[in-house]
Amino acid sequence: MAFAPIRIPLSQLARGQRAMVECSALDALPSEHRCLLAAMGLGEACEIRVCRPGTPCIVQIDRTRLGLTREIADRIMVTPIESNSP
After folding, report:
1. Spatial contact of 34 and 60, defined as CB atoms under 8 Å apart
2. Domain limits, the chain
3. Residue range 8-81, CATH number
4. Which of 8, 10, 60, 82 has its CA at a distance of 20 to 30 angstroms from the CA of residue 26?
5. Contact (Cβ atoms closer than 8 angstroms) between residue 20 and residue 45
6. Of the candidates 16, 59, 61, 28, which has an alpha carbon nearest to the alpha carbon of residue 43?
7. Under 8 Å CB-to-CB from 62, ≥6 apart: which residues?
């Protein structure tokens, strides 16, 4: 039996945690925010790492860092990626 991945708000991740953002996870945002975030690299099947939780929430996507307001980070749903390190 397969379980659906757990999705939580981006704002609930701790420093250093990684997560996957799916396109549908951005549906709660207004279209102008989705377009702007997509232009900055936050889009479908995007892996992010939290550099700094809080306000602003700073995330890294590839080699780009973005600062997000708490309101935006609360509305972006992510699936945490488990760390393979011991």
Report:
1. no
2. 8-81
3. 2.30.30.90
4. 82
5. yes
6. 61
7. 41
Report residue 40 as tokens. Answer: 């900055």
Q: Which helix (H) or strand (E) holds 34?
A: helix 31-39
Of the candidates 75, 20, 64, 19, the residue with the CA atom closest to the CA atom of residue 40: 64
Instruction: Determine the straight-line distance between the first and last CA of the chain, rounded to whole angstroms.
Output: 27
Long-range contacts of 39-45, Cβ-Cβ distance < 8 Å, separation of 24 or more: 40/64, 40/66, 41/66, 42/66, 42/76, 45/20, 45/21
